[in-house]
Amino acid sequence: MKYDLLIIGGGINGLGIAADASERGLKTLIVERNDWGAGTTSASSRLIHGGLRYLQYGEIDLVRESLRERGILARQRPHLVHPISLLIPTFQNQPMPGWMVGVGLGLYHLLAHDPLFPRPSALDVRDTKMREPGLTTDRLTGGYIYPDAQIEFPERLCVELMRETLKSGGEARNHTRVRELRQNAEGAVIGALLHDELTGTDEEVEAELTINAAGPWVDVVNRTLKIPPPKLIGGTWGTHLVLPDRDAGPKGAIYATAKRDNRPFFLLPWNDRLLVGTTDVKFTANDPDALKIEPWEPEYLLEETNHLFPDARYRESDIEATTVGIRPLPSTDGKKTGAITRRHFLVNHAERNGVAGIVSIVGGKLTTYRSLAEEAVNLALKLLGRPLVACKTAKIEEIPTVETQIRDAEASLLRLKRDGAYARRLIALYGSSYREILARIEREPALGESSSEYPDTLTAQVIHAREAEQARTEDDIARRLMTKF
Ligand SMILES: Cc1cc2nc3c(=O)[nH]c(=O)nc-3n(C[C@H](O)[C@H](O)[C@H](O)COP(=O)(O)OP(=O)(O)OC[C@H]3O[C@@H](n4cnc5c(N)ncnc54)[C@H](O)[C@@H]3O)c2cc1C
Q1: 456 plus 415 within the same structural domain
Q2: Which residues on neighbouring strands pair with residue 325, listed in sequence order?
Q3: Looking at the structure, do residues 208 and 159 belong to the same domain, yes or no?
Q4: Whose C-alpha lies nearest to ligand 1, atom 21?
Q5: Based on the structure, what is the number of domains in the chain?
Q6: Which of 42, 44, 240, 322 gets mutated to test ligand 1 (max ligand atoms within 8 A of its CB)?
Q7: Please, which residues bridge with residue 7 across strands?
Q8: Average pLDDT for runs of 10 along the chain of length 485
Q9: Residue 280 domain-assigned (yes or no)
Q10: Nearest CA to ligand 1 atom 33
Q11: Which residue among 86, 217, 369 has the greatest number of ligand 1 atoms within 8 angstroms of its CB, and so is best to mutate?
C-alpha cells in the first residue's frame, strides 16, 4: 500500500498531525506500537497551560502561543479541556518573593488576553485558609489565584483525533510498531516495515513522506536508518503520584514550590483523586523503555505534599498509581533541566543530514499539539509539492455548554429508563459523541446495564470501545473508560 504520509507514533502530536493531514487531503497512515496516547501523553500533568514558569526563562513567544492554544482548545473541546483555578501559596523567605509572583501572573494574564480566563487575584492569609483549610500556616503570607486549563483525559483526546483521522479518510493502526525505516538507493526514506504486536504479522508500506512523531523514541526510530542522524532528543523524565482525595488535603489545584529543592510542583484534583507531580530529571540512557521510577521520587512527592497539607498524612501505602514519562525535549549540553526550552522543532532530515523523505518532531507539549500539527502539515504539503490547503483545526464552532450536554444526557438516560447519574461521566469522556452510546442502548436495551467489569460504566461503553474506538486489549478498554491509569 502506498501513502502520501506515514506518521510514526500515536501520542498527541502524531495524532494531531494525522487528523490535520487527512483533513487536508493527504492519504495518511498513522501507526502506534502500543495504544493511542499510552506514551508520554498519558504521563503528563494534564494541564493545558501557557507555562507560567517559562516566563522566568524569557520564553514569551512560547507562552503566548500556548495561551492562544489554551483558548482554542477550551472552546473547541470543553468536555475535555476546562478552566481550572490554581492557588499559588506564598511563604516568608521563599526564593521568589510574593510580589514577583504577582508581576509574573499579571504578565501571564496580559499575554492571554482571553475573557474565558479571568484576572489573577491576591489573597491574604485568611482568604487563603478559607480556600484551603488544610494548608500549613507555617510562614504562610497568603497566595495568588490564577486560571489555567486542565485536560483530565488526554487519552480521550487522542481517541477523538484518531477517529477524526478515520472520518476524513485516513488510516490508523494501534499496536503496530515501525520495525525499520526503508530507504531507496539514494538513501531517501520511502516507507517502513510494520509489525503488528498482537497478531505478530509484518507488512511493508510505502510512503512519499514519513513523519517521526515517536516522542522520546524519535532517536530509537531514526537509528534504523542506514546512517543514523545525530541524537535529537535530550529528554528529562517526570513522575506523578495518584493519591486518594482526603478531607485534610487540597480542595482545589495548587501550584507550589518544593521545600527540598525549590522546584515547582502541582497538586491537582483529577478523576476524583489527587494528582501530584512532578520530578524533572535528565534522562541519559539510550533506550526510553529502560525508564523506571526511582525510589526517592514517591518519597519526595509525598514529603512535599505532607509539608503543605500536614494533616493529610499521605503515606506510600496510599499511592493508587504512579505515572512516569520522558519530556521529548531537544538534546542540549549541560543546561539545568528546568531551563531546557519547551519549544518544538521540526527537523527536515534532507536539510539536517541529507536524508530525504523524513521529518522528525522534537518537543511539543500537549498544549501546543494543534499548532505543531498545523506547522507539520504545512511543511509536509510543501515537501510533497502539493498546494498549501488551508488548515481548519483552529476553527471554533458553536456548541452547547457542558452543563447543557449533561442535562440532555440525563434526560435521555431517564427516557431510556436508565440512571441519569451516568450523564456527567458520559459527557466527560465523550462530549457530544455520548449520543453514540445512547444509540447503542436504544438498539439493544440490555447494553444500558452497568458493566460488571468496569466501575461507573455502562455495558454499551465497553462495546463502543471495542467497536468504534479501536480498543484491542483489556488495557485499551480501561484506557478508553479511564478506569485504570
Ligand atoms: C512528567 C511530564 C509532565 C508533563 N506535563 C505537561 C502538561 O501539564 N501540559 C503539557 O502541555 N505538556 C506536558 N508534558 C509534555 C507532554 O506530555 C509531551 O510533550 C507530549 O505528550 C508528547 O507527545 P508526543 O506525541 O510527542 O509523544 P508520546 O505521547 O510519547 O507519543 C509517541 C508515541 O510513539 C510511539 N512509538 C515509539 N516508537 C514507535 C515505533 N517504533 N513505532 C510506532 N510507534 C512508536 C510510542 O509508543 C508513543 O505512544 C509533560 C510531560 C511529562 C513527561
Answers
A1: yes
A2: 238
A3: yes
A4: 41
A5: 2
A6: 44
A7: 30, 211
A8: 96 98 98 98 97 86 95 97 97 88 94 96 97 96 97 98 98 98 97 98 98 97 94 93 97 96 95 95 91 96 98 97 94 70 90 96 96 98 97 94 94 86 93 95 93 91 98 97 86
A9: no
A10: 9
A11: 217
User: Looking at the structure, do residues 348 and 466 belong to the same domain, yes or no?
Assistant: no
In a domain, 17, yes or no: yes
Q: Which residues contact 239 (CB under 8 A, 6 or more apart)?
A: 277, 278, 279, 293, 297, 298, 301, 322, 323, 324
Cell for 190?
520511502
Q: Which domain holds residue 188?
A: 2-41+155-234+341-383
Q: Which of 13, 20, 41, 347 to mutate to test the pocket of ligand 1 (most atoms within 8 A of CB)?
A: 41
The CA 39 to ligand 1 mean position distance, Å, reads 5
Q: Is 422:411 a contact under the CB 8 Å cutoff?
A: no
Gap between the Cα atoms of 293 and 286, Å rounded: 16
Question: Are 377 and 407 found together in one domain?
Answer: no
Question: What is this structure's pTM?
Answer: 0.97
Q: How far does residue 233's CA lie from ligand 1's centre (Å)?
A: 12
**Do residue 366 and residue 431 come from a single domain?**
no
In this structure, the dihedral spanned by the alpha carbons of residues 57, 60, 63 and 66, taken in order and rounded to 10 degrees, is -140
Protein residues whose CB sits closer than 6 Å to any atom of ligand 1: 8-14, 31-34, 38-41, 43-47, 49, 177-178, 213-217, 221, 238, 278, 325-328, 364-367
